[in-house]
Design goal:
41% helix, alpha/beta, single chain, binds adenosine-5'-diphosphate, Rossmann fold
Length: 159
């Protein structure tokens, strides 16, 4: 049976840190669905359509990765897609408490679905979508932190 993982997030926008986790995950699981969840309280900079387009462009070279969108509960989505695992990235100790809370809740909601954590690549441990947006807003150099298409899209937003 094919092993499917869901890699959830808001991806506003996708960074090289996200892509590192997606790429490495796609080498372990048979199939990875990057699922954009739009039910967050924060106001996003990019629309769902823009975020999907950027994700699709950035993962085009990964044949077993697809991009999808959902606005329900992650565990319901994972169940509906018959996923085996939820794939998340961990940057620092500060991520840990939040992730542990969500993982425990998801485990209670459906004990069959495991959550897998991958440690970030050291070079991305400080990297988040918010910090990238902050730097881009003040015209700082974000090359190497996001794919070129995201860099272009950010420059356009803040021009
Ligand atoms: P959320 O709002 O659900 O945290 P994000 O889009 O910010 O969504 O992140 C999605 C996933 O990617 C999370 O598991 C997060 O920990 C992980 N992630 C974000 N940035 C990095 C990074 N630089 N290195 C590794 N994982 C990361």
């Amino acid at each position: 049976m094919k092993k499917l993982a869901i890699c959830p997030g808001s991806f506003d926008p996708v960074t090289n840190g996200h892509l590192d986790i997606i790429r490495r995950g796609s080498g372990i699981f048979d199939e990875v669905i990057v699922a954009l969840f739009n039910n967050q309280s924060k106001t996003p900079l990019f629309s769902v359509e823009e975020r999907i387009r950027l994700l699709e462009e950035a993962t085009r070279d990964l044949p077993n990765v697809t991009v999808d969108v959902s606005d329900g509960l992650l565990i319901d989505y994972a169940r509906q897609r018959k996923a085996h695992a939820i794939l998340r990235g961990l940057r620092a100790i500060s991520d840990f408490e939040y992730e542990m809370q969500i993982t425990s809740m998801n485990k209670k909601l459906d004990p069959r679905i495991e959550t897998f954590f991958m440690m970030t690549n050291n070079q991305y441990s400080f990297l988040s979508s918010s910090i990238v947006k902050e730097v881009a807003k003040y015209k700082g150099d974000i090359s190497g932190l996001v794919p070129p298409s995201v860099e272009k899209a950010l420059m356009k937003k803040y021009q």
